[in-house]
Amino acid sequence: MAPAHGCVYSETPVVGQIKLSSEHLMEPVTFSESGGIRYLHFGTELIQGAMRLRDPDEIYLEYNQQMMAWLLFLETKPGMRVAQLGLGTGALTKFQHRYCPAVKTTVVEFNPAVIVSARSMFFTPDDDRKLETLQADAKLFVKDKKYRDQFDAVQVDLYDAICDGPSASSLEFYKGCFNILKGPGVMTVNLFSRHKSFDVNLRNICEAFNNRVLLFPESHDCNVVAIAFKGPQLEAEWKDVSRRAKLILEKTGLPTNKWVSGISRENARQELKLSI
Predict the structure, then answer these.
(1) Is residue 249's pLDDT more than 50?
(2) What is the mean pLDDT of residues 179-197?
(3) In this predicted structure, what is the pLDDT of residue 66?
(4) Which residues are CB-neighbours of 260 under 8 A, at least 6 positions away?
(5) What is the mean pLDDT of residues 46-66?
(6) What SS3 class is residue 189?
(7) 267-276 long-range contacts, CB within 8 A, separation 24+
(8) Residue 59's CB: how many other CB atoms inside 10 A?
(9) Which of 112, 142, 159, 210 is the most buried (most CB within 10 A)?
C-alpha cells in the first residue's frame, strides 16, 4: 500500500459490496481483504477503514488509535457521553463498547450502507444501553440545540469516496462541535497533513476552540489527529500524563507509550509541561 493525499490505496481486489436504495445519492460500500486485514472502501481503491480479522476489537490504523486521545485528559465515569461523527468500520465504536463500559457512544453516520457493513462485515455491536446509532447528517447534528453541552468527547472522522479533505470542515461545523461538548470536553479530528484542506481545517478548529488545539505528529499514512479542548485551562506535568498513558496501555492495549513524547515535541510551548 502507498499513501496519497492522506488516503491509503489498496492493491487488493474488491471482494464484496453493499448498496442500499435511498432518496439521496450514496457512495457504494465495498470491501477487500489482504494478509488477514479486511478493508472498507467507498467504491474506490481508497481505504476508509480496516480491521484485523483475528482481533476485530483492535483499533488497527494508527490515526484511529490516536482518535482515542481524549482518554488522556478525561476520566471515564458513569453518565459520560461520546459523539462519534462518522462510523467507518466501527473501530472506535467497538473499542469504546468493550473498554469503556461506563461510556455511552452516540454514532452519527449519514450512509445507511456504512451502518449495515459495520455490523455485518466488521462486527460492530447492535445498539444497546451503551451504544446509539443515528442515520443522520453530522453537519445538522452539531447544530441541533438538544445536543448542546451534552458530550464529554467528540470524535470527527468524516470523509467521502473522493477523500478530498474532510467532508465537514467549515467554521460553522467546528463551532457546532464546540457547542455540543461539555466543559471540560475534548474533540479529536482526523485531518490530511499533506493536502490543501489541512490549513483550512486547522484554522477553523483553532478559531472555534479559541486556539486550544494540539496536534499529533504525522502518522505513516499522512494523517494528523488534532485534539481540541473546551473548558477550564488544563495544566499538568508530562510525567503525570505519561502515567495516565501507561495505565491506558495496560488496561486496553492502546499503544499510548509514544503519544506523550510525540505531542510534547510537536507543539510549541508544550515541551516542559502540558498547558492548554
Answers:
(1) yes
(2) 92
(3) 97
(4) 72, 238, 241, 242, 245
(5) 94
(6) strand
(7) 267/214, 267/215, 270/214, 272/238, 273/235, 273/236, 273/237, 273/238, 274/234, 274/235, 274/236, 274/237, 274/238, 274/241, 275/233, 275/234, 275/235, 276/212, 276/214, 276/229, 276/233, 276/234, 276/235
(8) 24
(9) 142
